[in-house]
Design goal:
Layout: E1 2-7, E2 12-17, H1 22-31, E3 38-42, H2 48-60, E4 63-67, E5 70-74, E6 82-83, H3 85-90, H4 97-105, E7 107-111, H5 124-132, E8 136-140, E9 143-147, E10 156-158, H6 164-174, E11 180-184, H7 190-201, E12 205-208, E13 214-217, E14 226-228, H8 233-246, E15 248-253, H9 261-269, E16 273-277, E17 280-285, E18 295-296, H10 308-315, E19 321-325, H11 334-341, E20 345-349, E21 352-356, E22 365-367, H12 371-383, E23 387-391, H13 393-399, H14 403-408, E24 413-420, E25 423-426
This protein binds ligand EPZ.
Ligand EPZ binds near residues 26, 119, 124 and 399.
């Protein structure tokens, strides 16, 4: 088991090149199944979720090699149409392989991924949409038996909620279907645009229209393509929240700043100075932050639910009372209990979190129970007085590439240690010396 030891209270300064997007890499890796050829994906982050997606690809018959942040996927050998239960449960977003398998193979056998710490995560929109395209899907003992007696046929699908995963699954199933498909009320996250860009590079005809519609013209075959994955906007927002909470002057490089305009306003309302230039965002934070009232998570381009926890951690020591409303997931406040153990004063009323700012947090042993709660506890530990021992590191490694090295590059004093019994073995280089 590993822990991350954080000695808080330091300002964050310096430049950090941002990792590639987890939530873009995963559907694009699934899309490789559709291409009868070799695809080269650059800027793929080294994450356990990405490794899990690679294992599924290899199980389906692909050959995958990694060189640094570049993955090469040869999907000419795709033949298997089943995904074992353990692989489905290892990463719940593996449901996005369903659309790709139906598109390429015309059948799929896999288990429903089930819920997770943040919610039930139903897939009713995925299944109803794939059935509308002509897939016969039988649900038995939490397993999906899917078959297309003929080629999938394009149709108009209107989503009752702009589900990211359902939008991705429809896109993956529709690009090789007969005829055209229109998705109404589709998700508009940047990761959707990135998936569309990769599919078009493979020879698909996908058009992202204004007003949340996506039009797809089915083609006969897709070939491999070379693509660079967009940067991870949620990792960017997490590191910005850390800089805001600790005070400092941080530049994130290799970012698409347009992807997080809705959150920049929150940082500015809290008293930070945010400067966005092409490919870079700079955040400067002096002194105590001010509270921000009425932050409401919404589908893109609204405030992203994945940034809710980290921004909440940042606001724990702001002056005044902040209010955050989580409208996307029903159970996404697991970080609150641990933040309160560090001295925060947060009350939960249903989907509403009321954060009464305190002068400072105090480091202690805390445990992350989900990915973004882990990012939030790292932010809190960096801002806190004293030492924080952050456990549940495996959750963090799902979505943040080498979080301690990234933050150490910004002058944070943190290291990962393997805990064997009660003996800690530290294996990180010394902290970079920075300004006071
Ligand atoms: C994607 O999850 C992201 N994951 C999530 O990021 C992100 O929080 C979420 O989109 C919202 O932006 C990946 O891209 C791998 P949804 P997804 O379908 O596709 C309900 C992270 O931390 N819903 O847009 O599962 C659902 O219950 C992760 O990186 C249905 O009711 O999100 C939820 O309340 C966490 N029926 C809401 O929609 C369905 O069939 C949003 O879900 C599908 C979804």
């Amino acid at each position: 088991m590993e822990e991350i030891i954080i000695r808080g209270g330091r300002r964050l300064e310096g430049k950090l090149r941002l990792q590639g997007s987890k939530n873009s890499s995963l559907p694009i890796l699934a899309a490789c199944v559709l291409a009868d050829g070799v695809s080269v994906l650059h800027n793929c982050p080294v994450l356990t979720d990405v490794a899990a997606a690679v294992r599924i690809l290899e199980h389906l018959g692909c050959t995958v090699t990694r060189e640094g942040h570049t993955l090469t996927v040869d999907s000419r050998g795709v033949s298997c149409y089943t995904v074992p239960e353990d692989m489905m449960h290892e990463m719940r977003s593996s449901i996005v392989f369903l659309g790709a398998m139906l598109g390429r193979l015309g059948k799929a056998e896999l288990c429903t991924p089930g819920g997770c710490e943040i919610g039930l995560r139903p897939i009713d929109l995925h299944l109803s949409s794939l059935r509308a395209l002509g897939a016969q899907i039988e649900e038995q003992n939490a397993c999906l038996h899917c078959v297309c007696r003929e080629k999938l046929k394009g149709t108009v699908i209107s989503l009752s909620f702009p589900s990211v995963g359902a939008t991705e699954n429809i896109m993956l199933a529709a690009v090789l279907a007969e005829g055209s498909t229109t998705i109404l009320n589709a998700a508009r996250e940047p990761e959707i645009d990135d998936l569309a860009a990769f599919l078009c590079a493979c020879g698909a005809k996908v058009q992202i229209c204004s007003g949340g519609a996506i039009r797809i013209e089915g083609v006969k075959k897709l070939h491999g393509a070379e693509h660079t994955v967009i940067s991870d906007r949620i990792a960017a927002l997490t590191y910005m929240a850390a800089a805001a909470a600790c005070g400092g002057d941080v530049v994130l490089e290799q970012v698409q700043t347009a992807h997080f305009l809705s959150v920049n306003r929150v940082f500015e309302q809290a008293g930070c100075r945010v400067t966005a230039t092409p490919g870079e965002v700079r955040i400067q934070s002096q002194g105590r932050l001010s509270a921000v009232r009425d932050i409401r998570t919404l589908p893109y381009p609204g405030f992203p639910t994945d940034a809710q926890a980290a921004v909440m951690a940042m606001l724990c020591t702001a002056k005044g009372t902040s209010v955050m409303v989580e409208t996307i997931f029903e159970n996404r406040f697991h970080h609150v209990h641990e933040l309160n153990r560090m001295g925060a004063r947060i009350r939960i009323e249903g989907r509403v979190a009321i954060i009464d700012g305190v002068a400072s947090l105090t480091g202690t042993a805390v445990t992350a129970v989900d990915l973004r709660a882990g990012g939030a506890l790292a932010v809190a530990g960096l801002a806190a007085k004293g030492e924080t021992v952050l456990r549940g590191v495996h959750h963090i490694d799902r979505g943040y590439e080498n979080i301690e090295a990234c933050l150490r590059a910004l002058c944070a004093d943190m290291e990962r240690s393997a805990v064997r019994g009660n003996r800690q073995q530290k294996f990180q280089p010394p902290v970079r010396q920075c300004g006071g």
